[in-house]
Amino acid sequence: MATLTPAKYEKLDENIIVVGASVISLLKKNRYTTEDLFQILKKEKEINLEKFYNTLTFLWVTEIIVSDGFYVILKR
To answer: What digits encode the pLDDT tens for the residues 24-44?
Structure first.
């Protein structure tokens, strides 16, 4: 289950807010497809697909990112 606050034994690098910050940093430099973004984060943060989509959902609900076809971009 995904939570915003880290659980007692959860790695902070895998927390939704920390992964979300990485997503924002990447999207400030370039726009990426969801697949490309996942592959980059999988190498950097060693996250799984569920954590990735939970992070994207959190960023979308808080209106930080939007989907433009296959691309994920920062909402300006």
So the answer is: 999 999 999 999 999 999 999
